[in-house]
Amino acid sequence: MKITSAAFELSAPSLDKCPTRPLPEFALIGRSNVGKSSLINSLTQRRELARTSNTPGKTQLLNFYVINNAWRLVDLPGYGYAKVSRDQRADFNQTVARYLSERKTLRLVFVLLDSRLPLQPVDREFIQWLEGVGTPFALVFTKMDKHSPTQGRVGVEKIKAAIGEWRSELPPVFLTSAETGAGRSELHAAIDAHLR
Questions:
Q1: In sequence order, which residues have a C-beta less than 8 Å from that of residue 165 and are 6 or more positions away?
Q2: CB neighbours of 151 closer than 8 A, spacing ≥ 6?
Q3: Which residues contact 174 (CB under 8 A, 6 or more apart)?
Q4: Measured torsion, CA atoms of residues 163, 166, 167, 171, in degrees rounded to the nearest 10
Q5: What is the pLDDT of residue 1?
Q6: Is there a contact between 31 and 21 (Cβ–Cβ < 8 Å)?
Q7: What are the distances in angstroms from CA 155 to CA 79, 116, 119, 134, 150?
Q8: Are strands 6-12 and 62-67 parallel, antiparallel or unpaired?
Q9: Residue 110: strand pairing partners
Q10: Counting C-beta atoms within 10 Å of the first and last residue's C-beta, which end of the chain has fewer, N or C?
Q11: Which residues contact 114 (CB under 8 A, 6 or more apart)?
């Protein structure tokens, strides 16, 4: 896959404010600071396309990016962020839940997991929720450059084993680094397969 164009389209606070043009969509979600914006920039090779921040919970809207004028990447609010009120958090979670369970143009959800950490309870709960609503997803391990290859593989295998405790077949798994570009071509291939 060659990405020739990538542009921010709009930010939506609710499902009825999402783009109406029916393009295939690939959503990214994970805990705050897992590296969603960095991965979007890496995938598109546009350094400033998605804003990155060290502040947890910075993404509070559904952000849509049109790629090659043919499909979209969607940056969803991170789950588990703390810098908003409980009412706001419930609103954002409800919006995300509706998007993930009702959006007709959604092809695949990339669930981002920090490769340096064990599977967190909130990650487990979210993955099980996705399974419950039948939304197709893949696991994307981020920040693989932040530790040795051996440490990275061990960490990933532990998380896969934890998921294997309740799921007989694992979803697709990708190992990535926004810094080195690792995993970019594999993710491109996965997106390409869902566009056919």
A1: none
A2: none
A3: 110, 138, 139, 140, 141, 183, 186, 187, 190
A4: -30
A5: 86
A6: no
A7: 21, 7, 9, 27, 9
A8: antiparallel
A9: 28, 138
A10: C
A11: 30, 31, 34, 35, 141, 142, 143
Please state the rounded mean pLDDT for residues 91-117: 90
State the average pLDDT over residues 7-30. 95
Question: Distance between CA 75 and CA 95 in Å, rounded?
Answer: 13
6-195: CATH topology is Rossmann fold (3.40.50)
Give tens-digit pLDDT for 64-99. 999 999 999 999 988 764 444 555 545 557 889 899
Query: Percentages helix, strand, coil for the chain, rounded to the nearest 5?
Result: 35, 20, 40
List the beta strands (DSSP E) in 81-150: 106-114, 137-142
Rounded-to-integer distance, Cα 77 and Cα 99, Å: 11
Those residues whose C-beta lies under 8 Å from the C-beta of residue 103, and which sit 6 or more positions away, are 15, 18, 25
Q: Is a pLDDT exceeding 50 seen at residue 11?
A: yes
34-73 residue pLDDT tens = 989 899 999 999 988 987 655 444 457 899 999 999 999 9
- Nearest 5°: the CA angle 36, 38, 39 is 65
CA triple 178-123-89, angle to 5 deg: 95
CA–CA dist 30, 36 (Å, integer) = 7
Mean pLDDT of 171-180: 94
